[in-house]
Structures are given as C-alpha cells and as structure tokens.
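REVIEWER CHECKLIST
Item 1: Sequence provided? yes
Item 2: Single chain? yes
Item 3: Sequence as submitted:
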Amino acid sequence: MNRTVPPFRADIVGSFLRPKPLLAARAKRASEQISAEELAEAEDHAIIALIEREERIGLRSATDGEFRRGFWHFDFYRHLDGCEVYESGSGVQFKGGASRAYGLRVNGKIGFTDHPFLRHFKFLKEHAKTSVSKMTIPSPSVLHFRGGRKGISQSIYPDLNDFYGDLGSAYAKTVGAFANAGCRYLQFDEVNLAYLCDPEQRENLTQRGDDPDKLPLVYADMINTAIAGRPEDMVVSMHLCRGNFKSMWISSGGYEPVAEVLFNHINVNAYFMEWDTDRAGGFEPLRFVPKGKTVVLGLVTSKTGALESKDQLKRRIDEAAKYCPIEQLCLSPQCGFASTEEGNLLTEEEQWAKLERIVEVSREVWG
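Item 4: Structure as written out by the authors:
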C-alpha cells in the first residue's frame, strides 16, 4: 500500500522550528543590522540544511519550513493585490494569550500580479533531490473570516459576492503561476472550516452578521474556483487545524458540522486533519470521505515535545480505519511546528524525533 504520489504515508504539514542562527538573523534584519540580501543568504543556508534532513530521515515530501515567513498567512496576503497587512490594536486571541498585533484588510480590488512565494518555491524545488517539493499558502477563506464585512472596503465591494468572485479568480491565477513554476504539490491552509465546528466561534460569526451555516459552501465555491484549472498531475491538499501559536489553540469541536461540505463539495485531493487531542472529536466524520480522496491523520502533536508511542499511533490509525479504508489514510503531525516564527514549545530534536516516529510507524503500518 505504498504511495507514488503525494500525500505520502508519512507526510508533513509545512512549517518547522526556525534554527537559532536564522532567528538571530531575522532579529538583526528587523533592527537593520544586516541587509535584506544577508538575511536571504541566512534563509537559503537554513532551508538547504532543512531539505537535506527531511530527505535523510525518509520523508518523501519536503517544504522550506516556511523559514522566509514571519506568519503563515500575512506574508502571503501582503503581496496579493488589494490586501493590506497593518499594525492593529490587538492580535488574534488564543486560549492563553494573543499573537502579535497585526490585522488584515481589503482596500482595493483583489487580484494576482506576481508573488515572492513563487521564487521561494523555485529555490525549494532546485534543492530537493529525492523528495517532492510541497508549497503551502493560506486558503482564500482566511481573507474573509479574519475580519468579515468590516475588513473589506464597502466602497470597493458593496456586494460581497463580487469580493468572493474576485478572490477565487485571484487564487486561480496564483495556482496557475505555481503550476507554471513546476509545483505539483500545493496546500491550502484552511483553519476556518475547523473553527466553524466550534459553538463559540459560530456565535461570534452570528453576532457580526455572518451565517455560519452558509459560510462552508461560500468557502467551498472559492476553493473550487481557485483549483478548477490546475494540471491533472497537481495534487492540492487542505490543512485544517484549530489554531497554532506558541503551542496555544483557539477552537474545539468535532468535524461533523462541516464534514459533508468538506469531503464532498470541495474538489481537493487530500486533507491534513487535526486529531491529536479530544478537542477534534472522533473519527466518525471520516464516513463521508469518498473513494479517490486521501486523509492524512494528524495524530502526532506539534504542540509538545512528548513523543507518541508506536502502539498508541497504530491503535488510533485502526480506529480511523473503521470509518475510512486504510489505503486512503496517511500519517502526519497535526499542524506545523511553527505557524509563526516564534514556534511551538518544543525543541528541534523533539521535532525531529516526532517526524522519525511518523516515518517508522508508516512503514510498519503500510509497508
């Protein structure tokens, strides 16, 4: 039951803890002690070392660890036409603290012209020798979910349907540009469908004027527009999580409220799904997964350094296989290790031990 195309039986979400020399270089650049070119050189060095280690432990997909980003989403949107990242009065509120105080708003027509992420991907692909290069970008839903109607210029988009249409079209151009650059493994980081499983988040959306029952289909339509023209050999996955910042989280609740739309209305190939704690509910929503799609079980937590046992992981894979055939399942961490450059509360060696465990268990389960 080995796989020749991604996602692979042992796979990764995307981000890695930033090595200390890279964090130091980023701090120096922020205080203008080094140039942008010197920072890029430090990033290049760290990414090449990361790719080599990913391949050395047996991973068949490789990312650049998101080492050139400060945030998993802001760095993408600041280069999308019509979007602005700004310093706000407060950051995103997690259970236990808040992220750095930045916000996102739409102040022009949404579009795609060019993007530095394309150059980042080309560097990754150039240095990945035995692995498939995987690129991650935020899902289009993020641009709406974070601010809602208040975050989208009323004068530019009096009708939100026009905003959704332009955003889907801009993403279609983005996907096409990555395809032309040689990308055949692209991931949309889609946290918001998981948030829509949380009663507290749903109430917050209702209070601001959104309908949490309708949003999943709105988001599904945008994603489908974005990927409709992708090459036949391009795998598009979605990653769902409930918040990831300094090992904190935002939402809870099983996938049942969105499962039907998620698996049967969104035309992606695969899903990376959080299941490292009981906050994500049980595996029952996997009964909606159709043939031909793959679910990557995020059973290994990226939030702590405690190493999961092989027996524990195998038991949970067996539980999931009661609802979805095991040949449609894979294994990964539940999220990245550093959705922002601060990273989660574990060491680099604990991070690598978890990835080595994933590779080991996947070989024993799937061959």
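Item 5: Key structural point noted by reviewer: Residues 20-68+111-366 form a domain with the TIM Barrel fold (CATH 3.20.20.210).
Item 6: Recommendation: ____
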